[in-house]
UniProtKB/TrEMBL annotation:
This is EF-hand domain-containing protein. Residues 1-21 form the signal peptide. InterPro entries: EF-hand-dom_pair (IPR011992), EF_Hand_1_Ca_BS (IPR018247), EF_hand_dom (IPR002048). It comes from Candidatus Thiodiazotropha endoloripes. The keyword 4Fe-4S does not apply. Gene3D superfamilies: EF-hand. Keywords: Signal. One of its GO terms (molecular function) is calcium ion binding. Residues 26-44, 57-74 form the EF-hand domain. It holds the Pfam family EF-hand_5. It comes from the Bacteria.
Amino acid sequence: MNTKTIKLAALALVTAGFVTAAVAGEDAFTALDTNADGSISSEEATANEALYKGWEAADANQDGSVDAAEFSAFEAKVMPAETK
């Protein structure tokens, strides 16, 4: 293996580490809003058991979706720390 290949491999590993850290640090709302439309649908909520089970409480205005403010309020009151 030549030096150029080793350097490229090292760069790839470092880049992968940064990408992994960014995804791990992603907030729960963004992770659940898979289509990035600014709200969590009832279908998207199925990825989080606490949100799915507490859907009626989370969707405070009963419009069929949970926006960031509703999610924050629900998360603060209902969701266990390990699911945040």
